[in-house]
């Protein structure tokens, strides 16, 4: 089973790449003192960043901190949609392209800021017409099409928090998220295009909401024209209702601390957490970091390949770039359809200048070979970004050489759904980079690496990644569960936010993130909770007990490996393995489908009954095992090893 190679890391702490002078002399940030001044007075730094937004009423106080509960820009009033659209309409930017959309089949749409404003206000009126009020959560389950941005901004306009659910999640995962958010309105599409095929989406909604009594309306965007069942009264076509609704809609005056959105993310228990972000601090964080880390210029064409269903899509496809008046590119399809140079074709065609993607994609491009990008004109590119997981130095070098052609700075950006915006990354005009390290915390951000007792590690030491002071775009709580917010993030180390990541700090203070130290698996840059997959597995009638771990995987970073014990009388067979994999994919989504399922007579447990996941990871990765003296029954291991070899 385990013939995938571990990603090899050769870290070179000495290898520094300095920004090219042709870049640094034109960079938005050229003065290295920004780090020091933000260190001395971080509230003042963030105040300056917030002032670049449009506020209906200024704040009374920058920060109110009752650890771990923060309020930023207290009593300030603003609207995120106004900041992303209306304020760009006054000058020439109104006719600037806000969205360039490239569909899977090669269809293209260009939306100017004015166009976008018109459609967003129209859809805001649709929502109001459905009785959606300020504070009502709307669930959005859409593919990567302009309507995803339009409906998100329409929600923001009327103060209705959105909960965007990734289109790759299954009906079951969608149902859990709709129920938790108690949404009355769902926005979806008939289907989406993937490698030339129409994939149905609306049918997942039908299945999900058969168990969601709160849902009253489903708005359906027509994208593929696959056949859908429309329930009279409840279901309406987007294009039909838009045709009947006028544009122009006053935006709601929002408090800085009013909720902008909820985004569910995997936790260490089976139940996904609704991460809550508010308006003023979040928008300040994403607009500021988008401008500074990507060195945004007025004429850039900016492409972030993340799906709107993840935090990267929220912060760096929608809110950050649009708040800054950028031209964003949105692509619906897959990187290898119709050819393995689809991304490079798009960059060539639209003269993309900033490109932001994930290491898992870069490793895939590496595997396909450099001839694909070589055949395309990538001379428009001037900056590259990476996000989602540690970038291994080989991938960094490949990206730098074959996509950036050695000219473009590469910004490796560390952050999380919870942090809302980038926390650790270079400022490309002034920060020398080391391939594989996300470098230093951004100005105004207090990230550190600490030991077991919360003491900073010495240079060269490894430990836990924490954040020591509040920051504007921090999550405010876990939706409907403040205790979980406290327990998950603020209890491990007194007075510090615990990220769940392990990291090393080198002698220059540079941070090298190692990955999760909790039970979260990072598959292709996406978070899957071990517990979520385990609970899906034990729902299956054949399974008695399950333990799920992430093992190192050459392309995906990590892959899901499940160990199961079976109920009395059930016999292990290949068909059962397939059945279990399908069951997980159906219950959660294709991303969570285990790479392999290993049948165990028994799971290795400590004497206190805890499953030893670390040991299972060692087994799955073919490592010599460490200490098994705490095991209740060491013979379990030899049985498992035999099984693994047999597979
Ligand atoms: C933005 C995003 C967060 C987790 C995070 C960490 C990993 C993200 C990284 C990185 C190393 C980077 N991660 N960026 N690890 N270097 N540049 O991905 O949010 O989906 O919440 O995942 O991803 O483990 O804790 P999210």
- Would you tell me the structural class of the helices and strands? alpha/beta
Q: What is the name of the CATH topology of the domain at 80-260?
A: Rossmann fold
Distance between the termini: 6 Å
Attached small molecules = ligand 6R9
Unreliable stretches: 1-6
Main sheet specs: 8 strands, mixed
Q: What gyration radius follows from the Cα positions, in whole Å?
A: 24 Å
Quantity of strands, as a count: 30
Q: Please, what is the average pLDDT? A: 93
Helix content: 25-40%
**Which CATH architecture of the domain at 80-260 would you pick?**
3-Layer(aba) Sandwich
Oligomer: single chain
> Helix count, per DSSP?
20
Name of the top-level CATH class of the domain at 80-260: Alpha Beta
Backbone shape: globular
Taken as a percent bin, the fraction of beta residues is: 15-25%
Which sequence of strands runs across the widest sheet?
A: 12-11-8-6-7-14-15-23
Defining traits:
647 residues, alpha/beta, Rossmann fold, GMP Synthetase, Chain A, domain 3, 8-stranded mixed β-sheet, 7-stranded mixed β-sheet, 20 helices, 30 strands, 30% helix, disordered N terminus, binds ligand 6R9, Acetyl-coenzyme A synthetase, metal-binding, ATP-binding
């Amino acid at each position: 089973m385990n013939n995938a190679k571990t990603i090899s890391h050769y870290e070179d702490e000495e290898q520094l790449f300095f920004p090219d002078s042709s870049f640094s002399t034109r960079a938005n940030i050229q003065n290295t003192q920004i780090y020091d001044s933000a260190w001395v007075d971080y509230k003042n730094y963030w105040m300056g960043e917030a002032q670049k937004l449009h506020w209906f009423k200024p704040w009374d106080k920058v920060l109110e901190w009752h650890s771990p509960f923060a309020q930023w820009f207290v009593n300030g009033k603003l609207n995120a949609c106004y900041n992303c659209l209306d304020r760009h309409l006054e000058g020439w930017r109104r006719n600037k392209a806000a969205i360039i959309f490239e569909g899977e089949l090669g269809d293209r749409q260009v939306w100017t800021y004015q166009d976008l404003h018109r459609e967003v206000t129209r859809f805001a009126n649709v929502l109001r017409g459905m009785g959606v009020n300020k504070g009502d959560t709307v669930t959005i389950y859409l593919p990567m099409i302009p309507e995803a941005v339009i409906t998100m901004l329409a929600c923001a306009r009327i103060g209705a928090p959105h909960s965007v659910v990734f289109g790759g999640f299954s009906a079951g995962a969608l149902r859990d998220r709709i129920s938790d958010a108690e949404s009355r309105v769902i926005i979806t599409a008939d289907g989406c295009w993937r490698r030339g095929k129409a994939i149905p989406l609306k049918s997942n909604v039908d299945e999900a909401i058969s168990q969601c009594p709160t849902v009253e309306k489903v708005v359906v965007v027509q994208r593929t024209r696959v056949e859908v069942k429309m329930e009279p009264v409840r279901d309406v076509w987007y294009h039909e209702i838009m045709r009947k609704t006028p544009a122009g809609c006053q935006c709601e005056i929002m408090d800085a601390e009013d909720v902008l959105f909820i985004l569910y993310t995997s936790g260490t228990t089976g139940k996904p957490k609704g991460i809550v972000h508010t308006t003023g601090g979040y928008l300040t964080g994403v607009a500021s970091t988008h401008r500074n880390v990507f060195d945004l210029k007025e004429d850039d064409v900016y492409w972030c390949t993340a799906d709107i269903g993840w935090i990267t899509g929220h912060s760096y496809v929608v809110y950050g770039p649009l708040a800054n008046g950028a031209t964003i590119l949105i692509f619906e399809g897959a990187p290898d359809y119709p050819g393995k140079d689809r991304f490079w074709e798009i960059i060539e065609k639209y003269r993309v200048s900033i490109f932001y993607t994930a290491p898992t994609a870069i490793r895939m491009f590496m595997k396909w070979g450099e001839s694909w990008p070589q055949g395309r004109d990538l001379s428009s590119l001037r900056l590259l970004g990476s996000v989602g997981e540690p970038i291994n130095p080989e991938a960094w070098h490949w990206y730098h050489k074959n996509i950036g052609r050695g000219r473009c700075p590469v910004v490796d950006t560390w952050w999380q759904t919870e942090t809302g915006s980038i926390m650790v990354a270079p400022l490309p005009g002034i920060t020398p980079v080391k391939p594989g390290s996300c470098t230093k915390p951004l100005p105004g951000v207090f990230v550190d690496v600490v030991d077991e007792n919360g003491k900073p590690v010495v240079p060269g030491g490894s430990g836990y990644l924490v954040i020591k002071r509040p920051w504007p775009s921090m999550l405010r709580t876990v939706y409907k569960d403040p205790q979980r917010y406290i327990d998950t993030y603020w209890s491990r180390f007194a007075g510090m936010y615990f990220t769940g990541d392990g990291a090393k700090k080198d002698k220059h203070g540079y941070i090298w993130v190692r990955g999760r130290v909790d039970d979260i698996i990072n598959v292709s840059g996406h978070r899957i909770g071990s517990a979520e997959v385990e609970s899906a597995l034990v729902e299956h009638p054949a399974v008695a007990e399950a333990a799920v771990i992430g093992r190192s995987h050459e392309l995906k970073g990590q892959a899901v490996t499940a160990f199961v014990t079976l109920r009395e009388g059930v016999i292990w067979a290949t068909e059962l393995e397939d059945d279990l994999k399908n069951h997980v994919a159906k219950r959660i989504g294709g991303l969570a489908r285990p790479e392999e399922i290993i049948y165990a007579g028994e799971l290795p447990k400590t004497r206190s009954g805890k499953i030893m996941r670390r040991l299972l990871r060692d087994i799955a990765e073919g490592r010599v095992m460490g200490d098994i003296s705490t095991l209740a029954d060491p013979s379990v291991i030899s049985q498992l090893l035999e099984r693994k070899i047999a597979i």
